């Protein structure tokens, strides 16, 4: 496979609203990001995935766009954005934009026009259907609770919205829509962005009348066409958000011969702590063996035929240290273990803001303290269905999106140094202990562990390109694997539990070995049978 610059990259996701507030209005902004670029440079990342900064009424915090070629007032101006691109590029950091084109805001001029009349030029930019027997055209549900159809009094038709009713779905069957999207992509390409993260891109091939949303029949045709007419002319990183991807589907997207995307986010591991066939809120404990099976499957299936993205976190997911680590007595050890496990794999790693500090989930006492539309809609829906408040809060504490969205904790001053105004969402109370300033000053911090992982990757072709093989596969407590390239070997061994665990792999031939990184101070020699301390994680080179 041809080598690409983004094979070697580590990406850092910024959720702009919560990153850093430079003008003290309580909302993060673009100038705030510019002020913190040196922090990111120190961490060593070379790409930023920038959450949506476009004009938006913020029904879904920027994922409802009303102008794709302008900047949200709270975040700054286009001049600020140009500065950010320049300042980031001068530090060797590329900016990947969030491209949200499955839907727009209902305040986008296209939708405002579309609503005016059935024969308006923009009507067909969206998905409209007549009522059937006075009701919704079909049973399709919104991912934010309730029906995916919203009645429009004026025209007597329904429009489709997979997300909130303020996020009407674009009709990709319409070539004018597709051309308009290419124009937007080209506009940003010409500004010198490093690529695009494509929001719920697997929904664009939807067939509403058959209730098909993900993986529709024309999805790959549309992507090939978009690649050819826009970003494919540049050397960019493109990553699709694809909840419905299997390894076979991921190869269609990310095999370079297909000329679609660089890689996709697949979510198979993310669903392992929910009850099969139910919603993300219906919890079940994670079994490590399942996680190992899923990661190993993805590592092997894409070998030579596609490219993985590697992530634990993003702005929609709970904090990994609270989820699958231990955010109490082993917060530091378990956060480092999870980082080591992920960053030793093959693919492009993504770090979500605050993950490098071991930021944790948040527990607000009242539902009124939450902001996220998905959480609030689910709360109402489940109360109406008879769930108890306590039961619902338990799910929100475990899975709510605001866990990831509390402001970044910069120091131990008020509001964690995020703002001196009133933050749009309360800061997690643990900011006095968990914050960037303390982490940068402490050479044993989670931050420096991440920094070393990024550095090790940059300097190791074996980690970037080596083949993956699982070790001690049946072990229910330990996740271990070996990466190998031209005889150079890297071994990663992680205890996923808060107890002593034993690693045992007789088939591994051990020559000279050296510890590249560990989350305990004293060094343990690599052996075929090893006892591991709680959450111990070691990376060796053989
Ligand atoms: C996925 C985004 O990550 C999420 O935050 C958003 O709510 C939906 N897509 C809708 O755009």
TrEMBL record:
Q: What is this protein called?
A: Glucan 1,6-alpha-glucosidase
User: What's its EC?
Assistant: 3.2.1.70
What keywords appear on the UniProt entry?
Answer: Glycosidase, Hydrolase
Q: What class of enzyme is it?
A: hydrolase
SUPFAM superfamilies documented for this protein: (Trans)glycosidases, Glycosyl hydrolase domain
Q: Report the family membership.
A: Belongs to the glycosyl hydrolase 13 family.
InterPro entries in the cross-refs: GH, GH13_cat_dom, Glyco_hydro_b, O16G_dom_2, SusG-like_C
Pfam family for this entry, one: SusG_C
